[in-house]
Design brief:
With 122 residues, the protein is an all-beta fold. It is 0% helix and 51% strand. The protein is built from no helices and eleven strands. The strands form two sheets. Strands 2, 4, 5, 6, 9, 10 and 11 form a seven-stranded mixed beta sheet that branches. The radius of gyration is 13 Å and the shape is globular.
């Protein structure tokens, strides 16, 4: 079965940076679009960034444009989310997910990791 395992979460000060990683296994990684999502307590999960499997096209939520960068290393079956200039926020769980399409912004993601928590606080 598909496995996605996130890592890299933790506590960071406002304005700081953090890089999340998502390791994938047991599926045709090269054919899947990959996305990062986040969910704060009591709120709906929202899309943060996504990347196609074909040409490397990326898509970002307006709230993170210019600060977050998604990338993938197909040789390592790993996708990254570099987060810079982090704003103070309630602790959120960040999830990576895979979509069985070459490209999908934030829809039709059907494989999910367990999440990693990010807290931005002083």
């Amino acid at each position: 079965q598909v496995q996605l395992v996130e890592s890299g979460g933790g506590l960071v000060q406002p304005g700081g940076s953090l890089r999340l990683s998502c390791a994938a296994s047991r599926f045709a990684w090269d054919y899947y679009a990959i996305g990062w999502f986040r969910q704060a307590p009591g709120k709906e999960r929202e899309g943060v960034a996504s990347m196609s499997s074909s040409d490397g096209s990326t898509y970002y939520a307006d709230s993170v444009k210019g600060r977050f960068t998604i990338s993938r290393d197909n040789t390592k079956n790993t996708v990254y989310l570099q987060m810079n200039s982090l704003n103070p926020e309630v602790p959120s769980v960040y999830y990576c997910a895979a979509s069985p399409h070459y490209y999908s912004e934030f829809d039709e993601y059907d494989h999910w990791g367990q999440g990693t928590q990010v807290t931005v606080s002083s």
